[in-house]
Amino acid sequence: MVADPGEGGVAAEREEGAIARFETRKTQKMEAISCGSDKSKKGSFDAPIEDMLDHLNLHGEYVSTSSCSGRVAIFWENTATDTGVWTPANAAVAPGEAAPEGDTRRNKKGGLGGQWLLCRHGAVTAEDVLDALARAPKSPGIATFKHEPFILHVECRSLDAATRLMEVARNGGFRESGISIGKKHVMVGVRTSALKMEAPVLEDGQLLVDADYIKVLVRLANEKFVKNQERTDKLYALLRRALLANIPLPLDAPENGVPVPHFSATSNGHASGLEQTDATAARAVDAENMAVLCCTSECEQVRSMLVKADMLNKNFRNSKQADGRIAIPVTSQAASVLKAASTGIVDATSAHDGLLDNMRRGIVTVEKVENMQAAGKVGGKMSPYQRLVGALVLLLENVGGGGTRDAHNLKHAVENEGAVPHKWEEYTDMIVLPEGALRSQTWDTISRDKLWMTVAQSLGVTRVAVKGEIDTGRMRQSHVEIMHPSGADGWVKVAQNGLTYTFDVTKGTSLCCVLLFVQSARMLTC
């Protein structure tokens, strides 16, 4: 074992810190996504790419931050002479709102502002375009007809993960894709300019082209939109083969064929800060599947209030309803308290005035929601063990090793007969499984290379090792065998206290030994 002080140790410690920060940010972003929100202008996934993004976010090394499936749009840009400086009280109009005639105020970024006259994630007609242009402000400005292709931004766990994603994107036809490396994160932008189209069609309230030219633009844009969808579908197919082959589909995706488990909610918390309701008030609320429903824009704020009040039912996750609202699961006791407090049966403290005020105004409601989805089944909420089991079930399905058993029985077989471990040692790019891991007749029909590659991909590492039997001699020497990839070495690094400890796991050194060595070194330097 070698202690490598100085810059190398600091660099390794920074790398581990960056990975930890990525995991934290991914958890936060997946919470936002569960509220139907991302950082794109729309604030949520577009329907044509929702399945792809849900699937990609199941991968431990990636999380999407913003996206657009592609759109046909008309944007009106203010070109009037600037007459002022932006202030909160003098803000430019928000996109989608009519701008007052002669408005020359700058927006927050220093531009003169503008608005979307049309934005469609699908085909348009010439009538749609003409109707949108008719709504353009009469003040100085230019309206541009656009087709904007698919774009996606993904934060990656490491530069290596970003490189793999960028290669897939470029092979899928998104040639302008690239990697951005910042102080805190590594981002991949998936994009192409090949299908982009822009043409000015209106200036200062006057059409620059006739109706026939508008029809030509519409035809070209619709053709490009179809090609854009084909290219996006190709990208998803490549992702599934190259990066997601062993990552199970989201359990609520129709392609998976496995229904999402549904459970009855149980009261696992209390509503702090509110008086308990009496038995009559509690009986007024159904005890199962209760949720607070609100619009997407209010979801994160409402959920934050519920977290502070200890009202969340953690057995379930947020779900989007047919009317577009987000259902945030709460305990039956919390639902009783909220309903009673909103109608004046009991008094509420000032800490919950905002939530209750929204209920009284109808912005937030408490309702029973059918088919609530169990927590921990999508995105960053899946545990490493769940990801591993899901990938192994998918592997059995794909190679036919599961015989005639359905997905539910396959999962039962993997968990109970497949010798799948619940715990293992984890290093930066390697996991070391305990003795006997995956040594079962369940895997007799699967090639060992395919099996171990599946394990590596599902857990987001490049090397997999398994511990062997411990010698019975006086030294009690342990043994570790590298299972994937073939011929890989066993050298790993552990950073502690500004030092990098490098050792070979195949030589009988374990993480526990390293930690004992670190503790001894710390005592010697005191």
Please state the overall shape, judged from the principal axes of the Cα atoms: globular
CATH architecture of the largest domain: 2-Layer Sandwich
Content-based structural category: alpha+beta
The largest sheet is:
5 strands, antiparallel
Strand content: 15-25%
Supply the number of helical segments: 13
Distance between the termini: 22 Å
Mean pLDDT score: 75
Helix content: 25-40%
User: In CATH terms, what is the fold-level topology of the largest domain?
Assistant: SSo0622-like fold
The number of distinct β-strands equals 20
Largest sheet strand order: 4-3-5-9-10
Over the alpha carbons, how many angstroms does the gyration radius reach?
28 Å
CATH superfamily of the largest domain, by name, is tRNA wybutosine-synthesizing-like
Name the poorly predicted regions.
83-106, 254-287, 345-351, 376-380, 522-526
Q: Can you identify the CATH class of the largest domain?
A: Alpha Beta
Number of domains: 3
Q: What would your notes on this structure say?
A:
With 526 residues, this protein is α+β, with helices and mostly antiparallel strands. The chain folds into three domains: 36-251, 2-Layer Sandwich (SSo0622-like fold), CATH 3.30.1960; 279-368, Alpha-Beta Plaits, CATH 3.30.70; 383-488, no CATH class. It is built from 13 helices and 20 strands. Strands 4-3-5-9-10 form a five-stranded antiparallel β-sheet, covered by helices on one side. Strands 2-6-8-7 form a four-stranded antiparallel β-sheet. A four-stranded antiparallel β-sheet has the order 12-13-11-14, with helices on one face. A hairpin with a 3-residue loop joins strand 15 and strand 16 (430-433). It is globular. Residues 83-106, 254-287, 345-351, 376-380 and 522-526 have low confidence and may be disordered.
